[in-house]
């Protein structure tokens, strides 16, 4: 399949997808895109705004995965801002723009991932797996996963088999790993998309 991996980050979701697909990753932060390229040198990596790239190229792909920023939706950010630790911000509604667009315009298979928000989701997700909600145009089977903790990123990196030792980035490495979707969840979802085409 031709796969478009939007908001690719360092590629946690991509880790177990193998090399039989033609994958284009879009990441807006150049240093993060460089880390992704180091992990997946065969993928085409584009440094650009994900939605801008999507609007120009969506019809060139068979499968689209999108993990837009979850910061303004997360319960942790919400509770921290209520406690005065963070500035209060409006929820970034690009998440819902993306779901609506893909649902009505994209002919291939698609999935959008985000955290369980502090509010009732404006569009009902198809499934919740672990700490993630997923919206898609195909059925995603249940998957049991261990509860993920935020407090030990080193262990999480080991569990995901992601090693950022020696990698230079201006971003906090613990955040880069925390922002990853567990590779086994992402593989499960990709397989559900492939099986839904049969």
Layout: helices, strands, pairs:
Blueprint: E1 2-6, E2 22-27, H1 30-39, E3 44-47, H2 50-57, E4 63-66, H3 75-82, H4 94-105, E5 109-115, E6 127-129, E7 132-136, H5 153-160, H6 173-178, H7 183-196
Parallel strand pairs: 1-2, 1-4, 2-3, 4-5
Antiparallel strand pairs: 5-7, 6-7
What does this structure look like?
With 198 residues, the chain is of the alpha/beta class. It has one domain (2-196): Rossmann fold. Helices cover 33% and strands 17% of the residues. The protein has helices spanning 30-39, 50-57, 75-82, 94-105, 153-160, 173-178, 183-196, and strands at 2-6, 22-27, 44-47, 63-66, 109-115, 127-129, 132-136. The protein has a 7-stranded mixed β-sheet, sandwiched between helices. The radius of gyration is 16 Å and the shape is globular. The two termini are 13 Å apart. The mean pLDDT is 90.
């Amino acid at each position: 399949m031709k796969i478009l991996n939007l908001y690719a980050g360092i590629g946690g979701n991509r880790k177990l997808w193998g090399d039989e697909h033609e994958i284009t990753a879009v990441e807006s932060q150049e240093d993060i895109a460089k880390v992704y390229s180091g992990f997946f040198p065969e993928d085409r990596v584009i440094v650009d705004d994900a939605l801008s790239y999507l609007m120009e190229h969506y019809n060139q792909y068979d499968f689209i995965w999108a993990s837009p920023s979850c910061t303004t939706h997360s319960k942790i950010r919400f509770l921290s801002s209520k406690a005065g630790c963070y500035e209060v911000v409006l929820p970034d509604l690009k998440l819902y723009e993306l779901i609506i667009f893909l649902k009505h315009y994209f002919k291939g298979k698609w999935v959008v991932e985000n955290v369980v928000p502090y509010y009732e989701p404006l569009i009902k997700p198809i499934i919740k797996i672990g700490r993630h909600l997923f919206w898609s145009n195909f059925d995603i089977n249940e998957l049991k996963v261990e509860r993920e903790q935020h407090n030990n990123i080193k262990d999480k990196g080991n569990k995901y088999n992601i090693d950022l030792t020696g990698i230079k980035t201006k971003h906090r490495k613990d955040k880069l790993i925390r922002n990853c979707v567990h590779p086994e969840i992402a593989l499960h979802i990709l397989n559900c998309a492939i099986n839904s085409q049969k």
